[in-house]
Design brief:
mainly alpha, two-stranded antiparallel ribbon
């Protein structure tokens, strides 16, 4: 005689579906970056004007568009590997979590970049999102008080730590502002999306 356990089977299905949806969203985001670069190349770089233009009201649109624009395929390739690796770790928690982290990092990080970058400069590229993903993964275990997530954060530091620190140093042609505010936004995302936030007590 065999017994069925629908509750356990359902649990596995939900987990698999959640991971799959997260990875599909990540693939869609990266695919859009590659499609944008193909179109931009065909248009001789005309899309790059839609990056973040520092302290220009018209440049605020770049907060949404700049992560999908790159200065050539070399720039895009250098961002794709960490996006795939770090993004996949977040995608394991589902599409909703990946979308929320990406939104916080893009908006907060992008606005900070717009605010403090040198005037008359255009910032493009997904490196701010990369820094945001890394900062989120490093700090989420602290806010959630989960050992496995802390260990993932340690792994991220071990693999990407030196490159991330180097990206915060001022360099010509490199938006350390985007990297810095992307990282700040990633920490903010980890706090905002923490699993075990203290509940506010209400008294009559």
């Amino acid at each position: 005689m065999s017994f069925q356990t629908p509750a356990k089977r359902t649990g596995r299905t939900v987990d698999t579906s959640r991971i799959g949806s997260g990875l599909k969203l990540l693939a869609a985001l990266i695919g859009l970056m590659w499609l944008s670069e193909i179109v931009d190349t065909a248009l001789n770089g005309r899309l790059d004007q839609y990056g973040i233009i520092a302290r220009d009201p018209e440049g605020l649109v770049g907060i949404i568009t700049s992560p999908f624009l790159h200065l050539g395929f070399g720039h895009l390739i250098s961002n794709t590997l960490p996006l795939v690796t770090l993004g996949a770790l977040i995608a394991l928690s589902g599409a909703a979590r990946l979308a929320a982290v990406t939104a916080v990092v893009a908006v907060i990080g992008g606005f900070g970049t717009w605010l403090i970058s040198p005037p008359n400069t255009i910032t493009i590229g997904a490196s701010g999102v990369v820094f945001g993903y890394a900062a989120y993964l490093v700090t989420r275990g602290i806010f959630n008080r989960r050992l496995t997530q802390v260990l993932v954060g340690v792994l991220v530091i071990g693999v990407w730590g030196s490159a991330l620190l180097g990206g915060l140093l001022p360099q010509d042609g490199i938006s350390w502002q985007g990297h810095l505010f992307g990282a700040v936004a990633g920490i903010l995302a980890a706090w905002l999306l923490a699993d075990d936030k203290p509940k506010v007590r209400r008294s009559a």
